[in-house]
Amino acid sequence: MKKVIIFFIFLISIVTFSQGKKQLQLAFISKNYKLGFRLYNKEFNMYQKPYILKGRKKNKIQGYDDANYSGGNILSISPNKKYIVLDYISKGYVDDGTNKTLYENYLCVIVDVSKKLVVKEMQEDCGGNWNENNEWVNNGQLIFDGNE
Question: Using CB atoms within 10 A as the burial measure, which of 23, 36, 76, 84 is most buried?
Answer without folding.
Answer: 84
